[in-house]
Every structure is written in C-alpha cells, then in structure tokens.
Amino acid sequence: ETFIKSVLNRENGEYIVAYTIDTTPEQEAKMIERAMKDGDGFGFNCADNVSDVMKEIGFKHVLTPGGLERQLQNSDKVTEIKVYKNETD
Length: 89
Prior knowledge:
Layout: H1 2-10, E1 15-21, H2 25-38, H3 46-54, H4 65-73, E2 78-85
Antiparallel strand pairs: 1-2
Helix pairs in contact: 2-3
C-alpha cells in the first residue's frame, strides 16, 4: 500500500492496476534474480525489463505496457486484479 501511494503521488496517472499472480517460491526466487540482473528498466525499458522477469513464470516477452497488460488480463495465473486511484483527484 505504501509503494502504491508513493507512485500515485509522483506520477501523472490517475490510477494503478495491480495484478496478483499465483507463483511458487521457486518462481519468485527466479524472478527476483532476473530483476536484480536486469535492473530497474528506467524510462522506455521498463516494460521490456518487467516482461523479461515475467518470462520466468511463462509469460511471453513484449516491449510495451499494453502488451503486458493484455497478457495479464488473459492469464489464468492472475488471482486478483485491484485498481488503486489517486484520492487527491
């Protein structure tokens, strides 16, 4: 919740969509390892880096936020979708 609020406060967007994905501890360890290797993906590399991490749990590599979102919306690995809105709007 703290992270979500900090992002809403610093970004121009009105909302964040958070997807909860069913993973095993082993998958999570691999995802963390990949994320540490790839880095934060600043700027235009963000979706590329997130997608690279998500390959560890069977998602296809894409380069755009929309490509990631489409996969998440159609995935049976997603167990919950929650929308966080900027409450100052």
